[in-house]
Backbone:
C-alpha cells in the first residue's frame, strides 16, 4: 500500500466515522432524562425568568387517571418551586394520544408551561 492509498483510506474512514457520530447525535432520545423509562417520564417546562423546572409523571396516572387528577411540586430552580396540576380529563386526553399544555402555579411572580404527551 502506498502512502497515498493509506491516507485516502484513513481519511475516508475518519470522515465516515464523523458522519455516523453526528447523525446519531442528532436523533432525539426516547426520554429526555436518564431516569425516564416506560413507567414514568420527566417533562421540562418553558424557560421563564432565566430558568426551567421539571415534573415527573407516572404512566399509571395517564392510564388510570385519578378522579381528582394529580397535583405535584415541580423541581426547584432559582430558589423556588411551583405546583403542577392536571385534571382527570387532561390525563385522559393524553392517554388518548393528544398533547396537553399545562401552566403551573405562579411563584416568585411568574409561571411556566409544560407540554405533556404520551410516551409509551
Residues:
Amino acid at each position: 500500500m502506498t502512502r497515498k492509498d493509506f491516507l485516502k483510506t484513513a481519511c475516508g474512514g475518519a470522515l465516515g466515522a464523523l458522519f455516523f457520530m453526528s447523525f446519531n447525535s442528532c436523533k432525539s432520545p426516547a426520554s429526555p432524562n436518564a431516569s425516564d423509562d416506560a413507567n414514568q417520564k420527566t417533562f421540562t417546562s418553558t424557560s421563564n425568568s432565566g430558568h426551567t423546572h421539571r415534573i415527573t409523571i407516572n404512566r399509571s396516572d395517564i392510564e388510570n387517571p385519578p378522579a381528582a387528577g394529580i397535583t405535584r411540586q415541580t423541581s426547584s430552580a432559582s430558589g423556588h418551586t411551583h405546583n403542577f396540576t392536571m385534571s382527570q380529563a387532561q390525563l385522559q386526553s393524553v392517554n388518548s394520544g393528544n398533547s396537553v399544555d399545562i401552566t403551573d402555579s405562579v411563584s416568585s411572580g411568574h409561571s411556566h408551561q409544560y407540554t405533556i404527551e404520551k410516551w409509551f
Q: What stands out?
A: Residues 3-25 form the longest helix (23 residues). The first strand starts at residue 40 and ends at 44. The beta strands are 40-44, 54-58, 70-73, 83-86, 100-103, 113-116.
